[in-house]
Amino acid sequence: SDRTLSDHVRDCVEEYFKHLNGHDSSGLYHLVLAEVEKPLLETTLKHCDFNQSKAAIILGLSRSTLRKKLDHYGIS
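Above: the chain sequence. Below: its structure as C-alpha cells.
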C-alpha cells in the first residue's frame, strides 16, 4: 500500500469525529498520542528483542525516558 502513517492517522481522526455525532470532545491530542505511543513502544521493543538500549536509540529517546514511558503504559 502507498498509504502513509499520516494517511491512517487522518482517517482514524476523521472517523472519531464522525462517531461523536455532534457531541463535544476534549483531550483528543493526548488520546491520539497515547493510542500511537504504546504500540510504537511495544513494537519497537519486540523488534529489538526487548533490548531497551537498542529500542531507545531507534526511537531517539534516552534510556531513562524510555523506561518512564514503559512504566507509564505498564509495559515490561
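The chain has a mean pLDDT of 94.
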